[in-house]
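Weekly modeling sync, notes
Attendees: AB, CL, MP (scribe)

Item 1: holo prediction request
CL wants a bound-state model with S-adenosylmethionine before deciding which constructs to order. AB pointed out that an apo prediction alone won't tell us much about the pocket. Agreed to run with the ligand included and paste results into these notes for async review.

Input as submitted:
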Amino acid sequence: MPAFEIVNVENIKKVFRNFRKVGVVTTFRYIVSDLLFDMRYKIDTINTAQLDTLKIDSQNKSVGNYYEGTNAYIFQKMISHAQVDPSKSCFVDFGSGKGKAMFMAAERGFRKIIGVEFSIELVEVNRKNLEIFKSRSKSKAEFEILHMDASEYAIPADANLLFFSNPFNEELTTKVIGNILKSCDQSPREIWVVHLHPQGNMAFAKSPRFKVVYEAREGFVFQLEPAD
Ligand SMILES: C[S@@+](CC[C@H](N)C(=O)[O-])C[C@H]1O[C@@H](n2cnc3c(N)ncnc32)[C@H](O)[C@@H]1O
């Protein structure tokens, strides 16, 4: 991607937000890892997108958060605390945007990778990115990109790593938790949840079935055991 497409107001704001939150050294680490990721595959995940600039046909648009690709350094740090065998696991990204977390899951060797996103424009970028990613990576993962509201998604019986990078507010997350519990009770299995940048959204922590297994500045990793 040409430099002029990266140096824009939203990305500059992101850099200043990170300066305040994590300091100069970590911000620099984030920038380098984000740039290297897009350069490695020649895809576009780095530019953010505000929801009010996108066509979204959902009553939940107002409680959704804008698109920002998950940083590779944060993804690797957090996901390593979910004790799953990627080669036997199904990863679902709730609010998958341009697909960055899906591609990072593929790099980790997940067998099946599903992205659920309610913006058609972001889904289209994701589909384009996916074709390029497949041609440039050695991933053998099975991919699925769904254009829908994540709170309406019936979680499949084999999904065991559920990823949330601050897609929406606590109320909608609580609705999704209902879908997770339903899926787990219908097809009992261990489920891991990675919730990044919760920004006060404590829906998983408040739900008694989810146990915190790792907590860091960047978010939480939870484990859900099947009911007895
Ligand atoms: C912070 S971005 C995360 C992007 C992606 N998960 C990643 O890590 O690269 C949040 C995404 O959630 C999407 N989103 C917000 N509310 C949603 C909803 N109710 N259903 C589906 N997608 C939603 C936004 O459009 C945005 O792309």
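Recorded for review: The beta strands are 90-94, 112-117, 142-147, 159-165, 191-196, 210-216, 219-224.
Action items: CL to compare against the apo run; MP to circulate these notes.
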